[in-house]
């Protein structure tokens, strides 16, 4: 079946026939090694460090606008025997502790007692208030309905949808009630004791009943036909909806105001084709629980496909119009770089502005924007082409949707003269002071502040108004595909930047208040992702996510998605997304959906931890899905500690035991080094749960039996493409910076450069999907900034001319780094830490060599779990192994000989030796003796003279590998 293609279409009618509610039989939970098992700790790629601040800070409300400072009563403790005084009930309506979970059931954790009673109250004009005195109760209601407790409790389907209230009591709503009408009112339930006194009052959370009565799979947004433009808005709790049509992008009165008509919760109207190119907003009258009032909100369309600057208004735009398509756009699906298997993917992560903002080979009007990627001869594009030629397949772009934190209108930006900044010393605090003074008014932010998921960010376009951003985004995708790179979008469906009826960045919470954002048991918005967590367990939230993904694939022809905090999204949603995208075809949709790769952050924390809101898309729950998740275990083992531990904690490559720094690692450094080696080996075997290896104690164990400090399994994947191996990303310090922190201060910059290369070699030569942060291959520095989300171009600079790696541009911003300044300052001040152009050039070449080695043999990119298990072996294992050395072999079959099949026509056997020691190492293996192994041709031809000194003696099976070197030996079939 071909899915509908327009922005108004939905895959839901198809999807809900094929996917059960529960996709695993045994829920599991896992805390990554870098996360302490607490709901308040930040994740390994923590939004709590990077996304809580925008260029226009607003108070983040954890309670509704009129919530009291303290909880005055606990509904769960109320009973007929302990009735509260009226003053304790006074503020209870600001809470929503009861749940209307289905048309016939309200759930509440309250005991009304044997002779007590419970009533539902409704007020269309939001006039509910508490009566004082002996007869305390609610007044101002239009409807009062008695509810009877159901002794059977909540039904199983409700518990599956709302597991966090599984122990709540169930109260039956009498049949015949106009439930749909009541849902447009202010609602409350109140319990009364045996003598009629009110014991407890609260508002209600409505997503359950809204899903049951109003789930909808029809058109939404602005839908174009040959004769009209129609509008469709899902807003079942709204009392009235009007569309205000404007000629201008931000000023002027409406050309017309159109009243929309409602049919079963969907408001719609048919308008003139003359609306095309105009702008619109919705005026919605709706009860908002944060105000306890009926409010009139102005909101943009959640299904917006175009915007004015800063999302002031929604643009009427037909994405199928030929004038919005670059030349050859409709043929792009046939011109994309080949990708035969997801195992062949390697990913390079890049921020749109970082790419060209500091590239003086790019004309000023293109810097920092989409069109910089379309230039053929800029330094940045030449570098990307070099990486593509070496083997990088996918370019992962940090958020490119419309986000808050950067004004779309460039003329409003503030900046600091770089000539002034360059005059200060490398360890000065002056640079960061000047940068942070204007950081909320410059052109820089990572973009994890989502406002509109479905529209490209306006600040990256030549003109943020009109359709310019659409055309330029398409040109960017097309240009990148033409130089051999597929495009991955960083999507942030786990939270929204705005909420409430008055925030200019609030959209969804204005249209259906209390539905799109996940709330706690008191009715307040959850903020574990930083702010305004979304609730994909609700039908129309899930639908919006799926429709948005399909929109980006079909209308922008993107090739993959990286999900931010994917663990906060339900596994069911991710599986539906994968299925819906995979169903897209060139013939029916203009794209091959089966070639779109999906991966993300599978951290398990907050209110969703341990499947607290349903089976979530966390690392362990993704077993068997073919959806990738970041492997933080290999990162922490390679570097040492975690992003939240002591910054000097060393790891496998940074000197643990073998070249200690000034940090006290205790007496267990040897055990820590051995354990980190086990973690890396499991990671190099694609982090497979059932991969068998010999651990540091000499025991044969599975990947899942190798455990972290908190006894969590290291291996969790079922397939190589479920593991995304990485050692650095945009979060935390860059690879070169973290190495500069953790290694002893006395070593040379040459050695640090080799360690940088050593880290990337482990990732590049591992099974699974390798992931690299932009600049890893150029010794990129952010002057030791641990969180550069809002640190401006100065600290985030990339130099594709290879003249500087940006080390020593001042102390990093005080807000996130001040506690580490005593460690940072002496390093930045020491000239021996600074790299030269020769270091950068060598690192770029060595990185390219690694990619060429990876793509020289399919043995580095095995496609199944069985292939990894059969062909990959680790030597130098057990208690007598040489510390700091990993030896991996990959064996191929031979045509016409029994055993496993032949995959590589060139090499029959590969040995990878990783020597993290500060000295040369010799390793002899009887298993590898008498093989016809030679150093890989790429390394024989390398500009790295050190690796060329690697040797193998077939008569003894002895390998000699220089210090801090990864050597690859191959057995050519011609021998």
UniProtKB/TrEMBL annotation:
Pullulanase N2 domain location: 96-212
Alpha-1,6-glucosidases pullulanase-type C-terminal domain residues: 802-971
SUPFAM superfamilies documented for this protein: (Trans)glycosidases, E set domains, Glycosyl hydrolase domain
Glycoside hydrolase family 13 N-terminal domain: residues covered: 219-304
Pfam families (alphabetical): CBM_48, Pullul_strch_C, Pullulanase_N2
Residue spans of biased composition, Low complexity class: 36-47
Annotated GO biological process: carbohydrate metabolic process
Family, per entry: Belongs to the glycosyl hydrolase 13 family.
Molecular functions per Gene Ontology: pullulanase activity
Protein name per Swiss-Prot or TrEMBL: Glycoside hydrolase
Domain of life per record: Eukaryota
Organism: Trema orientale (Charcoal tree)
Keyword Amino-acid biosynthesis attached: no
Annotated region described as Disordered, given as residue ranges: 25-66
Keywords: Hydrolase
């Amino acid at each position: 079946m071909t899915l509908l293609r327009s922005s108004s279409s939905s895959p839901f009618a198809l999807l809900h026939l094929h996917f059960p509610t529960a996709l695993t039989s045994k829920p599991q939970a896992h805390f990554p090694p870098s996360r302490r098992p607490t709901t308040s700790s930040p994740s390994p790629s923590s939004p709590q460090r990077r996304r809580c601040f925008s260029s226009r800070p607003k108070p983040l409300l954890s309670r509704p606008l009129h919530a009291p400072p303290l909880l005055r009563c606990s509904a769960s403790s109320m009973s007929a025997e302990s009735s509260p005084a009226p003053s304790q009930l006074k503020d209870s309506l600001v809470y929503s502790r009861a749940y209307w979970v289905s048309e016939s059931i309200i759930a509440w954790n309250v005991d009304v007692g044997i002779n007590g009673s419970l009533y539902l109250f409704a007020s269309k004009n939001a006039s509910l208030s508490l009566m004082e005195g002996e007869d305390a109760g609610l007044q101002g209601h239009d409807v009062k309905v008695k509810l009877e407790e159901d002794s059977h409790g909540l039904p199983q389907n409700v518990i599956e949808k709302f597991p966090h209230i599984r122990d709540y009591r169930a109260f039956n709503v009498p049949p015949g009630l106009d439930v749909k009408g009541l849902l447009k009112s202010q609602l409350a339930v109140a319990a009364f004791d045996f003598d009629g006194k009110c014991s407890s009052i609260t508002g209600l959370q409505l997503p359950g009943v809204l899903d049951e009565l109003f789930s909808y799979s029809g058109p939404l947004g602005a839908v174009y036909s040959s004769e009209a433009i129609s509008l469709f808005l899902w807003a079942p709790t709204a009392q009235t909806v009007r569309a205000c049509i404007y000629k201008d992008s931000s000023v002027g009165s409406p050309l017309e105001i159109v009243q929309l008509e409602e049919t079963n919760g969907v408001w719609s109207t048919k308008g003139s084709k003359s609306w095309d190119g105009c702008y619109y907003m919705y005026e919605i009258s709706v009860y908002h629980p944060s105000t306890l009032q009926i409010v009139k909100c102005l909101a943009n369309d959640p299904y917006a496909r175009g915007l004015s600057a800063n999302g002031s208004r929604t643009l009427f735009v037909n994405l199928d119009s030929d004038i919005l398509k670059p030349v050859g756009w409709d043929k792009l699906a046939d011109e994309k770089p080949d990708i035969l298997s997801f195992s062949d993917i390697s990913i390079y992560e890049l921020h749109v502005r970082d790419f060209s903002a500091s590239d003086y080979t790019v004309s000023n009007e293109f810097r920092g924007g989409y069109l910089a990627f379309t230039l053929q001869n800029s330094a940045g594009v030449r570098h990307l082409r070099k990486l593509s030629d070496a083997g990088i397949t996918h370019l992962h772009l940090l958020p490119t949707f419309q986000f808050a934190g950067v004004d779309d209108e460039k003329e409003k930006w503030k900046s600091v003269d770089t000539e002034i900044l360059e005059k200060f010393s490398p360890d000065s605090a002056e640079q960061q002071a000047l940068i942070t003074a204007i950081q909320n008014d410059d052109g820089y932010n990572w973009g994890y502040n989502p406002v509109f998921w479905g529209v490209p960010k306006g600040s990256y376009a030549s003109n943020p108004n009109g359709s310019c951003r659409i055309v330029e985004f398409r040109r960017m995708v097309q240009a990148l595909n033409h130089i051999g790179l597929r495009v991955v979008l960083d999507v942030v469906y786990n939270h929204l930047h705005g909420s409430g009826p008055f925030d200019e960045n609030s959209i969804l919470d204005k249209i259906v208040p209390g539905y799109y954002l996940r709330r706690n048991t008191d009715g307040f918005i959850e903020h574990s992702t930083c702010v305004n967590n979304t609730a994909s367990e609700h039908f129309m939230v899930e639908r919006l996510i799926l429709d948005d993904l399909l929109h980006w694939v079909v209308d922008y022809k993107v090739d993959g998605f990286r999900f931010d905090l994917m663990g906060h999204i339900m596994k069911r949603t991710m599986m539906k997304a994968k299925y819906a995208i995979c169903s897209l075809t060139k013939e029916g949709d203009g794209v091959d959906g089966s070639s779109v790769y999906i991966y993300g952050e599978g951290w398990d924390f907050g209110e969703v931890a341990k499947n607290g809101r349903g089976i979530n898309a966390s690392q362990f729950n993704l077993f068997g899905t073919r959806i990738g998740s970041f492997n933080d275990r290999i990162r922490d083992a390679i570097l040492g500690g975690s992003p939240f531990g002591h910054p000097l904690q060393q790891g496998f490559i940074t000197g643990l035991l073998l070249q200690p720094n000034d940090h006290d690692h205790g007496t267990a450094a040897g055990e820590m080094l051995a354990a980190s080696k086990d973690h890396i080996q499991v990671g190099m075997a694609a982090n497979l749960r059932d991969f068998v290896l010999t651990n540091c104690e000499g025991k044969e164990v599975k990947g899942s039996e190798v455990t972290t400090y908190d006894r969590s399994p290291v291996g969790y994947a079922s397939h190589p493409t479920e593991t995304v191996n990485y050692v650095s990303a945009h979060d935390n310090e860059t690879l070169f910076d973290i190495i500069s922190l953790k290694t002893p201060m006395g070593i040379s910059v040459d050695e640090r450069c080799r360690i940088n290369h050593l880290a990337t070699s482990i990732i590049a030569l591992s099974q699974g999907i390798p992931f690299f942060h932009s600049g890893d291959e150029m010794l990129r520095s952010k002057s030791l900034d641990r969180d550069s989300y809002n640190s401006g171009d100065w600290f985030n600079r990339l130099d594709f001319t290879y003249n500087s790696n940006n080390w020593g541009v001042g102390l990093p911003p005080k807000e996130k780094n001040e506690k580490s300044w005593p460690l940072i300052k002496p390093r930045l001040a020491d000239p021996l830490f600074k790299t030269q152009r020769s270091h950068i050039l060598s690192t770029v070449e060595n990185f390219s060599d690694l990619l060429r080695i990876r793509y020289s043999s399919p043995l580095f990119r095995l496609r199944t779990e069985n292939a990894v298990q059969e062909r990959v072996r680790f030597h130098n294992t057990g208690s007598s192994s040489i510390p700091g050395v990993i030896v991996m072999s990959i064996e191929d079959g031979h045509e016409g000989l029994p055993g496993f099949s032949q995959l590589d026509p060139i090499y029959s056997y590969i040995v990878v030796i990783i020597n993290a020691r500060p000295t040369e190492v010799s390793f002899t293996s009887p298993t590898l003796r008498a093989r016809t192994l030679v150093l890989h041709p790429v390394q024989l031809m390398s500009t790295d003279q050190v690796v060329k000194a690697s040797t193998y003696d077939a008569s003894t099976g002895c390998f000699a590998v220089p210090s801090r070197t990864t050597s690859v030996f191959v057995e050519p079939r011609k021998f």
